[in-house]
Amino acid sequence: MVTPLKQPIVFELEGFYVPPGYGAFLFVLALCNYMVMLFANGVVLCIIVIDHNLHRPMFVMVCNLVVCDLLGGTTVLPRFMVHFLTGQKKIAYISAIAQAFCVHTYGFAMQTILGVMAYDRYIAVCEPLRYHAIMTSARLHSCCALAWATAVICIVVLFAFHVNTPLCGNTIKHVYCSNRAILNLACSPTPLNNIYGLSLAWSVNTSIFLVIALSYLRILHATVKQGRDARRKAFLTCAPHLVVYVLYQIGTLVLIVIQRFPSLSQNIKRFFSILFIVIPPVINPIIYGLVSKELRASIIKHFYKCRSPQKSGGA
């Protein structure tokens, strides 16, 4: 009979296999990824906060997306850097639960926020004259709060199953902690958690997909009747949101599909399994910064404004 572990429990992540001499190189790659993520999201967040012309529903939602991206990237990238540089794979029980909680919250909040953004784009394109009457400040903040609350409450319930669950192993067979990776170490099967987790993932993915699909079908139907300029404006308004959603779904799809190829090396599988949490936080702010005309113009304006005092000082 296997004896359950007693607190304090310290897990050991299997992590990546790092060939001798490559740790510093991988550390630099992870550091660059993290710095680009912090810089790009920081610029978008600061510009939206500073520029009062951007204090509009769409950009407030972009700020929520930025916070979600920062949560996801900061949850895993610093620990990857430590692993690559020092080879440290151990993680305390509380830290493991915290990392797993944040990873799952990032995943669900990303979808609920994108669902709210789809609703906002639908109102903006299909009800332009009533947009400000519908998307009031109170409704905007209620939608954003609902997106976060839904994600957090769902994940709190998911992790409630960890209470009083005895663990008989301490090796997590992944590069980061997750609900399933931790409960795989349980001394006995956890069917309730499995059923709830699968039901939650299916219901959230399906409901958000339906919200976004119906919103864009209505937008498409509304713009078909309008002129070319109106269609172009609607496309530019919706393109960033749709690209961000598609990229995230591709990342999660790769995470599922890659497990169906047992012949692939563990390093390749683990690399593809982290794409959904390390790539979107870097690309999302760049997409919004490049495609959104108002945000791009504001970034350029503040960039030149910051350079002007330096030139004056040098003169």
Distance between the terminal alpha carbons, to the nearest Å?
79 Å
Q: Structural class of the helix and strand makeup? A: mainly alpha
Reading the helices and strands in chain order gives EHHEHHHEHHHHHHH
Name of the CATH superfamily: Rhodopsin 7-helix transmembrane proteins
Stretches where pLDDT is under 50 for at least 5 consecutive residues are none
Share of residues in strands: under 5%
Helix % is: over 70%
Report the radius of gyration as a whole number of Å. 22 Å
- Helix tally equals 12
Task: Count structural domains.
Answer: 1
Q: In this structure, how is the largest beta sheet organized?
A: 3 strands, mixed
Question: What key phrases describe this protein's structure?
Answer:
315 residues; mainly alpha; Rhopdopsin 7-helix transmembrane proteins; 3-stranded mixed beta sheet; 12 helices; 3 strands; 75% helix; 3% strand; globular; transducer; disulfide bond; G protein-coupled receptor activity; olfactory receptor activity
Describe the structure.
- With 315 residues, the chain is mainly alpha-helical.
- The protein has a single domain, classed as Up-down Bundle (Rhopdopsin 7-helix transmembrane proteins), CATH 1.20.1070.10.
- The protein is built from 12 helices and 3 strands.
- It has helices at 23-50, 57-86, 93-126, 131-134, 137-160, 179-183, 191-224, 228-257, 266-273, 275-278, 280-291, 293-314; strands spanning 10-13, 90-92, 171-172.
- A 3-stranded mixed β-sheet has the order 2-1-3.
- Helix 1 (23-50) packs across helix 12.
